[in-house]
Amino acid sequence: MANRESIVFVVSGPSGSGKSTLVQKLLEVPGTMFSISCTTRPPRATESPGKWYDFISEDEFERMVREGAFLEHARLFGRHSYGTPRKWLDQARERGLDLVLEIDVQGAAQIRKKVAGAVSIFILPPSREELERRIRERGQDSADEIARRLRQARLEMESFSLYDYIVVNDDLERAGREVQAIGLGARCRSQIARPAVERILKTFGGSSQ
Question: Which fold, 8-35+96-202?
Answer without folding.
Answer: Rossmann fold (3.40.50)
